[in-house]
Amino acid sequence: MAIATPPTPAAAERMERLEQIWESRPGILGWLTTTDHKRIGLLYFWTTLALFGAGGAEALLIRTQLAQPNQHVVSPQTFDELFSMHGITMIFFFIIPMTTGAFGNYLLPLLLGARDMAFPRMNALSYWIFLASAIFIYTSLFIGKAPNAGWFNYVPLASKQFNPGHNIDFYCLGIIFNSIASTLTAGQFIVTIFKSRAPGMSLNRMPLFCFAMLAASFGLLFALPALSADTTFLFLDRNVGTHFFDASHGGSALLWQHLFWIFGHPEVYILIVPAFGIATSIIPAFTQRRLVAFPLVAVAELLVVFVGFGVWAHHMYAVGMTTISMIFFAAATAMVVIPSTIQVFAWCMSFITGFARFKTPLLFIAGFIFMFVTGGLTGIMFVAIPFDQQVTDTYFIVAHFHYIIFGAAVFPIFGGMYYWFPKVTGKLYFERPGQISFWIIFVGTNLLFFPMHIVGLLGMTRRVSTYPSGLGWTAYNLAETIGGFVTLAGILLLLGNLFVSYFRGPPAGPDPWHGPTLEWTTSSPPPEYDFAVIPRVTSAYANWDPVDREADRLNLADGLLMLEHGHEQPTVTPVDGRLAEIAQMPHESPWPPVLALALALVFTMLLIGLYGVAGIMGLVCLLALAGWHSQEPPE
Amino acid sequence: MSGYSVPQSQVGRPTAWWGMTILIASEATLFGTFIGTYYYLRFKTPTWPPGGIPEPKLVVPLVMLAVLVSTTVPMRLAATAARTGRLAATRLLIAVALVVQSGYFAYEVHDFSDQLHRFDITRNAYSSIYYTLLGADHAHVLLGVLFNLWLLGKLARGFTRYRIHAVQAIAWYWLAVNVLTIAVIGTLLSARA
Amino acid sequence: MNAPREDRRCLAFLVLAVVPLAGCGGSQNALAPESHQARDIATLFWWMMGGAWVGLGLVVGLLLWSWKRRNRRGFGRDVEGDKPGEKRSWYAVVVLGIVMPIAVISTLFVVSDLFVIKTTQAPASTTTKLTVQVIGHQWWWEVRYPGTTAVTANELHIPARTPVRVEVKTADVIHSFWVPELNRKIDTIPGRSNVVELDADQVGRYRGQCAEFCGLQHAHMAMYVFVDEPSAFRRWLAQQEKPVEAPSSALAERGARLFLDGPCSSCHAIRGTDADGYVGPDLTHVASRATLGALTVSNTPDDLRQWILHSQQAKPGNQMPDFNASGARLDALVAFLEGLK
Ligand code: HEA
Ligand code: HEA
Ligand code: CUA
Ligand SMILES: [Cu+2]
Fold first, then answer.
1. Which among A128, B57, B68, B118 could disulfide-bond with A596, CB atoms 3.0 to 4.6 Å apart, if both were Cys?
2. In the 8-state DSSP scheme, what is residue A579?
3. How large is the average pLDDT for residues C33-49?
C-alpha cells in the first residue's frame, strides 16, 4: 500500500528535505522553467486537449458542409484547408503528443519507479518546441494560408507551380518543427526506459505500458527522418528550385509518396501502440488479474511497430505499381495483423478470466476493443489488392481509419483520463455521468463513422467539398453529421464530469482501484519527487506485491534508499535492471523555452524567405545550447 | 535485502552516451533516406549523372575522406585518456583532431562552392540530391567542429565527471560522422560505376 | 440491371448493417457491378464482409461473456499468482490470436492477390480491341481515341462486351480515373502513363469520378462512361472525328467569329477552325455532350449561357474565367456552340 504518510518523525523530516530539494519555483516562472515530468505532462495535456478541440471544430465544420448535397457552408478553399488541418492536427498535434507527451511524460517515470526522465531539460524543450510548432502552424489558419493539400500532401499538387502561396511552406516547416519535438520525446523515452527504472526492474518486469511507450518511441525515432527528408526536399523544390519531385527534370512524384508512407504507415502504429499501453494498464486494474500471455503481448507491442515499417506501399495500390511489388506489400500487411490479433485475444481472455468490473475506464477499453476490431477487420480487407484499388480514396478508407483512430486510439485516451484522474488530482470522478458519457460517445462515433463504409462503397470519394444529390449518399451523410454532434456532446459531458469532479469529487486516496503498477504506491497527486523511497520491484505488477511494499515502508522508516541528499536518481543497467549509479539530475532551467523561441524564429525566417536571418537565428540557438550546458550537475 | 550497494566505478555507459546514440540513430536514418532517394532517382534515370553533368572526381574526395577518417584515432584516444583522467593528453588529442577537421571543413566548403559554379543545384534531380547529400554531410562535420570547440572550452577549466562523459559522447559522434561520410562519398562516387 | 439480385444484396446489407441502404443501384455504386472485374471485386467484398461479421461477432461474444461473469463486489480480490485455467487462456490466445488469423488471412491473400488480381491487372495490349487515352486536367477529363482525330471531354464512349484498354495520363497534378461499376481505379501520375481495362457487360451510362484529391474542384471532376452497342459506338466515333461544319445561321456565324476572335480560342480547340487552345476542353462537338464542366451542370442552351457568363459560380476556381458578354453576343456564342453537334 501507499507510503504517503511518514511512519516516524525522522522519516517525516527526510521527506521534508526531499520536498525542499525537488520543489519547483512558484507561479508562472515555475511553469516556464520546470523540468518536472508531471508538470510537463500536464502542459502537454492541456495544449493537446485544446488542439483536439481545434481539430474537432474543423471536423464538425466539414460535417456541417457535407450534411446535405450541394451546400455552401464553406468555400472549396476553406474546405480544403479544413480537412488538411483536421488531419494534420489530429495526427501530429493531438494523438502523438497526447499519448507520448501527456500520458507518457506524466506516467512513465511513475510506472518505472523513477523520479524524473533521463534528460529533464530536454523534456521541457520538447514541450516548448511542440507548443511553438502548434502556434506556428495555426498561424497559417488565421491568416488564411493553411496547408491545403491534405495531410499527405501529394506533389505535384503541393508544388510551387500548383500551389504558389505560403500554405505548403507552412506545412513543410511546421511538420519539421513538430517532428523535432517528437524526436526529442522519443529519444528521451528510450533512454529513460533503459536507464531510469527502479533497481530490480529487469526488462521482463517492466509494465506493458512501458513496452508500448518503448515501441512507439522506436517507431517515432526511425519513422520521422523519412518525413523530415521528404518535407525538406519539398521545401527545397518550392523555394530553392531543386527538382526532387519534378518528373520533367528527372525527379519523381512517386518519390514523395514513398517517403511519406515510409513514415506514414509506421506513424499509424505509433498512434495506436500507446493506446494499447493504456489498455494494458486499465485491464489488469479492473479485472484484478495479471494480463493473460504477458510476454506474448509485450513482444506483440514491439513487433507491430517493427513489421509496420515494411508495409508502406499498401497506401499506393492505385498508382500503377507492378503486380509483384504490390503482392509483396500485401503479404507484409497480412503479417502485421498477427501481433494485433494476439493482443485482442489476450485482452478478451483477461476480461473473461478476471473479475471484470465495468467502471467507466473499463467500459472505454471494451469500446476500444470493439472499435479496434471493426477498424482492423476493414484494414484486413485492404490486403485484397483489387478491393483496395476499388475503395481507396473513398469514404470506406475514412471509415477504416476513424474506427481505428477514434475508436482505438482516442477511446483509451478517454479511458485513461478517467483511470488516472484520481492519481493526478487526488479526487474521484463521478461514476454515473462517466458511464453515460461513454455510451453517448460510443453511440455517437458509431453513428458518425459506420455509414461512411456504406457511402464509400456507394462511390463517395473522400476530400470532396460537396456532392450531388441522387447518388444515394444524402441520408448517410446526414446521419454522420448527427453522429458527429452526438460525439461532441459526449466529449463535453466527459470533460464536464472531470471538471466538476476536480472541485467536488470525493478524495481518492493513493490507490482507489487497487491498481497493479507503481504509480498507485505513492500519494495522489504524487509529490514532486514521485517516490519517497526508491521502490523495490520484483514483478511487473509491483503494487500487488505486498512483501515489496512492506519493504518500502521499512526503508522509509530506516531512511534507506531515499536519496534525500540532492537531486538524485538511480540509473540501472539496461537489461537486467541492476543499479549502476546514483545520477545527479539537472533541475529547473530557463534555457528550454529560450531555445524553443529561437528555433521558432529560425522557422519563421525560413518561411518568409530571409535565409540569412534564419542563419543568424541558428547561431542564437547554438548560443542558447551553450548557455544550457554551462550549468553542470554537482559532482 | 532492502538496500542496494552503489557501485563505485561506472557500470555500463553513461546516460550522455545513450543520448548521443539516439541522436546518431536518428541522423543515420535521415542519411539512409537521403541515400535511398539517391538510388531511387538513379534507377529511374537512363544515364547517370544526367544532363551532361561530369562524373564526380575520384582522387581528391577519397584523399579528403581519408584525412577526415584519420581523426577518429585522436578522438578515440581522447575518450580513453579522459576516462583515465589524463587532462593534458585529452586536450592535446582533441586539439589535434580539431585542427585537421577544421582544415577538412574549410577545403570542402571551398570545393562545394566551386562545384556549384560548374553545375547548379537547380539543374536536375541529380544535382538536387547530390548537393543535398553533400551539404548535409558537411553540416554534420561543422556541428562536430563546434562540439570540439565547446569541449576544449570546457576542458580549459579541468575535468568533471560531466565533461568526461561529454568527451566520450563526442568521440562517439565523430565516429558516426566518419562512417556517415564514408557512406555518402561512396554513394556519390558510385555514379562513376 | 438484374434488379432482384440487387435487392437481395440491399436486404443483406440492411439486415447486417442495421442502417438502411438508400439509393441501392445508384450510378456510382461499387456494389452494383456491370463488368466481370467489378463483379469479382464485389463478390470478394461480400465474402470478406461475411467473414468480418463473424470475427467481430466472436470478439463481441467474448466481451459479453465477460460481462456476464462480471464482478459486482469490491476491489482487492486475490491477485496473487496464476489463476486456474491460466494455461487454457494461453492456448486460447495462441489459437485465436495466431493460428486462426494465419489461416484466415492466408486464404484471403491467396484468393485475392494471386487469383482475383488477375482480372483487375493492367491488360496486356494484345488482349484488348481498342485503346482510349484519358488525360486528367484540373478539373476535367480529356478523352482521345488514338488512330482517330476524335477528341472529347468528360465522357468516354466504349463498345459493349469489348475489352478496352484505357491509358491514363495527366496534364498537371495526380488524378485518379475511377468508374466503380466497371473496374477499380487507377491514378494518373506525371511523367508516366497507366493502364486499366474496361469491359462492360451491357449498354448503359456509368458515372465515374476523379478519386485523388487534385485541388479546389476535385469534387466536380466527374465523367460518364457511355457503353454503346458496337455499331452505335462506331457511328458515334465517326461523327466525333468530323471537323466542325459551317455555321448554319447568321447568328451562329457571328458567334463563331466572336469565338475565334475572342479569348475563347486561346484556350479551346475546335477542329476545322483556327481555334487550337489546349487549356480547356476541345469543343468541336460540345453540343453532343450530356453535361458541361465535368458533370457540374447539364448541357442545355440555358446552362451553356450561364456557364459562359458565370462558370466561376457553378464551379468556383475552375480555370475558365467568367466572360462578361452582353446579351446579343452571348446569344451568338450560344447559337454557335449549340450547333456543334
Ligand atoms: C491507428 C491507426 C491505424 C491502425 C492501427 C491501422 C491498422 C491497419 N490498417 Fe490502416 N490506416 C490508418 C490508420 C490505421 N490503420 C490511416 C490513418 C489510414 C489512411 C491514411 C490516409 O489515406 O489518409 C489507413 C489506411 C490503410 C490502408 C490504405 C488504404 C488505402 O488508402 O487504400 C491499408 C491497406 O492495407 C490499411 C491496412 C491496415 C491494416 C491491415 C491494419 C491492421 O494493423 C489491423 C489489425 C487489427 C485487427 C486485425 C483487429 C483484430 C481482429 C480480430 C481479433 C478479429 C479476428 C481477425 C481475423 C480473423 C483476421 N490501412
Ligand atoms: C486522431 C485522428 C482523428 C480524429 C480523432 C478524427 C475525428 C473526427 N474526424 Fe477525422 N480525419 C483524420 C483524423 C482524425 N479524425 C485524418 C488523418 C483525416 C484525413 C485528412 C485528409 O484527408 O488529409 C480525417 C478526415 C476526416 C474526414 C474526411 C474529410 C474529407 O475527406 O473530405 C471527415 C469527414 O467527416 C472527418 C470527420 C471527423 C469527425 C467528425 C471527427 C470527430 O470524431 C471529432 C470529435 C471531436 C470533437 C468534437 C472535439 C471535442 C473536443 C473538445 C470539445 C475539447 C475542448 C477542450 C478545450 C477547449 C480545452 N475526418
Ligand atoms: Cu482530379 Cu481529383
Ligand atoms: Cu498503412
1. A128
2. E
3. 95
